[in-house]
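Long-time lurker. I teach an intro course on protein structure, and each term I like to show students one example going from raw sequence to a predicted 3D structure in token notation. This year I'd like something fresh instead of my usual example. Would anyone be willing to generate the tokens for the chain below so I can use it in lecture? Attribution to the forum is fine with me.
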Amino acid sequence: AEATLTRAKAEGAQLALLTHTPHVLAGPLLGQLDLVRFFPVIYGAGSRGYVKPDPRIFHDVVDELSGGKGHGGRGVMIGDSVTDLQTARAASVPCILMSYGYTPVPAASLGAEVVLDHFAQLPDAIRQLPF
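-- Reply from a regular --
Happy to contribute to a lecture. Here you go:
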């Protein structure tokens, strides 16, 4: 995971974390995993009065990540569940789902633009998305 995140950042990706994990735990957990350095913006449950799949939470993340410049960039939702796909659709952005993770329904059946079996495939998949 670390090599993929390093590659994505080197290729110009700005990364943020949007999770249902409680906000007070999300940052410390990433710190324990030595991954917080990749995510300058972290939104967990309770960081706002709304959560995924409300598109406002995605747009808030992008706005903060862009330094308040709004949703002018190329945003992509990357996740592993129907909620992540619903968030992407509500926010009108493409979605990449991992075939493994937290979902009772196979990710391949959900209708995302891309479904990946390996996290290392992520940077190439992002570059190939139609924006």
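Some talking points for your students: The first strand starts at residue 16 and ends at 22. Strands lie at 16-22, 41-45, 77-79, 95-98, 114-116.
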